[in-house]
Amino acid sequence: MAEPAATPAAEPVLEVIGITKRFPGVLANNDIHFTLTRGQIHCMLGENGAGKTTLMNIIYGLYQPDAGEIRMNGRPVMIHSANDAIRLGIGMVHQHFMLVPQLTVTENIILGNEVTQGPFLDRRKAAAQILALSERFGLEIDPEARVGELPVGARQRVEIVKALYRQASILILDEPTAVLTPQEAEDLFKVMHALVEQGVSIVFITHKLKEVLAVADQITVLRNGEVAGVVAPEEASEASLAALMVGRAVILQVEKAAAHPGEPVLSVEELRVTDERGHTAVNGISFEARAGEILGVAGVQGNGQTELVRAITGLMHPLSGRILIAGQDVSTATPRQITELGVAHIPEDREADGLVKPYPVVDNIILNSYYRPPFARGIVMNEAEAVKQATEVVERFDVRTPSIYAEVGTLSGGNKQKIIAGREFSRPIKLLVAAQPTRGLDVGSIEFIHKQIVAQRDQGVAVLLVSAELDEIMALSDRIAVMYRGQIIDVLPAAQADRETLGLLMAGVHPAQD
Amino acid sequence: MAEITAETHQSQPRQPSPGRMPRNWSEIGSRLVPGLAVVTAMIFGAVFMVAAATDWAAARAAFSADGVGGFISEVRPGIGRAGIAYGALFEGAAGLGYVNPSSIRAETFYVTLLPLGERSLVFIPRNLIDTIVRTIPFILAGLAVALGFKCGLFNIGAEGQLYAGGLLAALIGFHPAFRGLPSLIHIPLAVAAGIAGGLLWGAIPGFLKARTGAHEVINTIMMNYIAIRLADWLIKSREPVIMLDTTASVPRTPFVAQSAMYPYLANTSLHFGLFVALAAVWLVWWFLYRTTLGFEIRTVGANPSAARYAGMSVSRSVVLAMALSGGLAGLAGAGEVLGVQHNLSPGFFAGVGFDSIAIALLAKTNPFAVVPAALLWGGLINGAGLMQVRADLSIDVVKIIQAFIVMFIAADQIVRALWRIRARRRGEEVVFARGWS
Asked: What ipTM does this complex have?
């Protein structure tokens, strides 16, 4: 548990009083109250769509509230833009880093705030300032390194230093651990504590319950745009926080019977794949996924998982090696040939690959079966059959949509994913490739998707589950493969995999080699 | 602490239903944007006419002498001219006019709808018929461009495809080898040749895009030059004579045989091409929304990576869409040769292909909406002549109005701001074409 940081008589540095923000058709923030005191780590917990990001964007000046006020150090302030926020000492580290990969760390940090001597940049002075900052807070960075060559954890430190360089006394960290290994997350928490000790106050946005309990001094839980509760970590448990977040009791464990693995359905042999820029992304991978088992692929994002999935599903062709599905070599097959072998694919980027947003629900449900009976005879499509299928899928997968003719783009993330799952699971399949199947979904939808994946396994489908969420991998998998820099560093039976071991493997440390 | 309840999940926020019925001005207005763009353009055009018709030196002098009243008296004649101009434009386009019947030429047939003393409300059918005749190629070429947009392709090559179609249709029409065929064979043959010409002209940039990623905008423009110059040469060349009618005083091809001409309807200039165009509208809609190939084309246009994920062939759709787009433009070219001019001369299509881009935009790529958009264009062009005579304004005024319409469609934020229509929601915008890739 964290050391007690805030003193009882802590002064409030940031007060949010009755903030309300309405978007067309949605009340994103409703009368939100929230107080951050000096030297506090305040966790903002909530599901996607609960209003966390909207609130932070209001504090950071990106949105204007419809009602309510913001006070800093007791005085009301108007924050009209990010520049205002920075001037007031608010710094934000976004989920997607706002760095220029071609520039060095120093250049990135001083961007927009350049130290000059006459008309010239005073790089040396800037670098010295940055080094001093990084030493003071224990943020290890090399001012001369090129950002594009840094690992994700280091880039995040650059973002934090950038905020501190601009004299931020309040730091907003938006889902900072989403891109980190468990060990890197631990390092981040140490940095956070160092910052807090020196008087910086931190708003830490997350949906991961374990982290909240590990670092928070105070927890505000948002649900449906309202404050569902303010609790101290000592009084909270994972279960109670989850219940607050969702509004009902949540089963955190996935119930599943023991697996009965059968024949291998997917065999990957010495696979090499390059990414879109021609860099080797998958570097000689071999593994098998058997009927009736879930093979989880763990790993920090960007270690070749995306390319592995794209190669298996035919969206990329491998450089070398073989992919066999149900005994057939599909290394150079088209996505359609692979689909027709009985492969279902829940794509990593559901908005870009899995759905056509301006299309109605019905067209998205027949998106990859539109061309064959009963949906089409020859080239003529049969609308009635499509409507029948869509109605059935919407019902069976509990898709909340005003009608099957509603544009998919207007639905929530959970409903979008249910449409994809419904589409993929409503035909006979042998292999399911699910990439980040619950990213950004609400707890109810996550439970639903997890149950569906286990149900597919129980029907004898081989499941390849790729996820950056270690909890998800551990909850669902029967075996766990860990990917690091394009290679599978180890494959463990789920029973032998604990967070510690997996975390080390994800960081490229193989215990057997030590 | 919150109590723990065991309810079924109610956590999902209810989605606002995407309006079945429009609820307020911003929703109704969003659907009216193209219409409002036209109205706005007409108003701007009027301002332009008043500005052009006013003697500004005199107006300034009157202003300093008599103030605002003097200024208005100087500007008023200009406003009157603009009114006369639009009246004449409408009369020329739709045939409905409020005129003195004795001013109508003796040989022109008209119906008096409402006698109102000296001037009457009259209907001159011929004006409307001529407008429809001018509308026909706009419908087909507009459909061509709209079909390309549906696949995310910007077909600027309709002009060249019109020539490619027109040339082949003319060739089949006048060539001695085909003379003596019955109409039932000769017309379809010439039409098929026209479609084939446009098809080929469209398919080439489509193929280049699918194979090499070369942008269709560049290549359709280049194909325009090739087609226009090729037509020039084929028609004008005297050594050897290729398609030139050596007996004619101006460079043009020989007339097509009687058997290849579209039949006229009821002794008017209205020809069979009208039915061809209307059938094409329905066929394009049916193809896009009721066939697997159309579904693929629309999906590629809306989200190419989802199309790939769904197992569709993006390159096949691109080639097919460009070929069909070209084919429709070729059909338009054939219709003008077989139904109106009965021969082809250099420069004959003079911008029909470019105007069709504007028509497709005005129709928001909806095949049915192409018909009124084309009718507007046909009307503006057909009415321009009478406007010029009555109001003594250059035909170019019509071109200016057309330019304003296109501008307001492209930059619909201007129209939305002027008419107080709230900004479009996410996902409402139509994807016309993707960027350079």
From this structure: 0.83
